[in-house]
Design a protein that fits this description.
Layout lengths: L4 H10 L4 E3 L12 E5 L7 H5 L9 H4 L12 H8 L19 E3 L19 H22 L4 H5 L11 E5 L2 H8 L4 H6 L1 H17 L4 E5 L8 H6 L12 H24 L4 E5 L1 H10 L27 E2 L6 E2 L19 H12 L4 E2 L10 E3 L1
Parallel strand pairs: 2-3, 2-4, 4-5, 5-6
Antiparallel strand pairs: 1-10, 6-9, 7-8
Helix pairs in contact: 4-13, 5-9, 9-11, 12-13
Length: 376
């Protein structure tokens, strides 16, 4: 349903934003590129290229092969690029067959927002931003040296003018909370949130300094509903839907502080738009409404091991010298969780639809309309 300029003007006034609206009801954005930052929820092959292949049955349901993604098929970021009629993002760390004409993916599985030795990956958000700055600097240098006339510049590299017109997406924070929960109390973990948010802010401001203007920032999901954590902490109090109550309390507090910071950035940084995306609500609703949406037990998952669950999808282990291999269920579409940590393509699609139509975003605009806003 079309939203009038008057209605949107009221909404943005309430948000403390002064905006100029240009043809919101008709033309789409045509973002020329997307640059993504995050963890395994949006990693399209970086950890596979840097550390080792993400094996099948990951990716098989959609791609027909392992495609570097921890899911049976597409991730949320894949649905976003599809909606913008752009190719799937090439991981920055994957040099084979890379094409960065329409953006790049700096997300790496296991990453945290802040640098910490306890994180699963050394590619924390600060490192990912540094990689982007290097990528942009080298791209501009090659264009300047060759005047953009080489085949590389004409067909493979990002165009210099596109960096300021691109959409910058972020899906990170889950690991900061999940790892912290395993070693600290709820209150101790909450006390680390301001530092995590500050690290996030530094990264965003660095990208702004590099010319980024359109930011789509996903809050962290209901980490306390992840099956692998539920299995790891059987004695921890549950909420009414069966999720770990203390961990979700931390996620809610993290998201509150993140939203407040994004509101500040919208006021502080001119000629930019930071969109806050409430992924927590979308994913939590999958748990709450699992049966009505056609899912089985929301805490069950599709890719299982020969003994027990949670050994990692596609991983081979050798207990007592016996080889055991994890396999996929017959119908991944019946599951919310793919492997106890990551979501199935079906669940990702349901969340992505709400992101793309703007129903869980603040400002509440479809992704294709975001670039029609400029702040005075």
């Amino acid at each position: 349903m079309a939203t009038s300029k008057v209605t949107l003007g009221i909404i943005f006034s309430l948000l403390g934003l002064t905006v100029t609206l240009s043809a919101v009801s008709s033309n789409s954005c045509n973002f020329p590129a997307v640059y993504n930052f995050g963890d395994s929820n949006s990693d399209t092959g970086a950890i596979s290229a840097a550390i080792g292949e993400v094996p099948p049955p990951n990716g098989v349901a959609f791609f027909g092969r392992s495609a570097g993604r921890h899911s049976d098929g597409r991730l949320i970021i894949d649905f976003i690029t599809e909606n913008l009629t752009l190719p799937y993002l090439t991981p920055f760390l994957d040099s084979v067959g890379a094409n960065y004409r329409h953006g790049a993916n700096f997300a790496t599985g296991g990453s945290c927002i802040r640098p910490t030795v306890s994180c699963f990956s050394q590619f924390h958000l600060g490192t990912q931003v540094s990689q982007f700055i290097h990528f942009k600097t080298r791209t501009l240098s090659l264009y300047n040296q060759t005047k953009g006339k080489t085949p590389l510049c004409k067909g493979v590299l990002s165009r210099p003018k596109d960096f300021s017109k691109a959409l910058y997406t972020f899906d990170i924070g889950q690991n900061d909370l999940a790892i912290g929960f395993q070693t600290t109390t709820e209150e101790q973990l909450k006390a680390t949130i301001p530092t995590i948010i500050e690290n996030f802010t530094i990264a965003l401001k660095l990208l702004y300094k590099e010319g980024a203007r359109f930011f789509s920032i996903h809050n962290t999901g209901p980490t306390g509903c992840l099956p692998y954590l539920l299995k790891s902490f059987p004695a921890t109090p549950r909420d009414q839907y069966g999720c770990l109550k203390p961990l979700n309390n931390v996620a809610v507090e993290f998201n509150k502080q993140l939203k407040n910071k994004i509101t500040e950035l919208n006021k502080e940084l001119p000629s930019s738009l930071f969109t806050y995306v409430d992924v927590f609500t979308a994913k939590y609703n999958l748990i709450i409404k699992a049966k009505s949406l056609g899912f089985v037990d929301p805490f069950d998952y599709c890719c299982v091991g020969a003994v027990g669950r949670g050994m990692g999808c596609g991983k081979t282990i050798f207990p007592n010298g016996t080889e055991l291999y994890s396999t996929s269920c017959k119908n991944p579409t019946n599951f919310i969780s793919w492997d106890g940590i990551h979501y199935t393509e079906t669940a990702n699609m349901l969340v992505a639809k709400q992101i793309l139509d703007g129903s869980i975003s603040n400002p509440p605009l479809p992704t294709q309309k975001v670039c029609k806003l400029t702040k005075n």
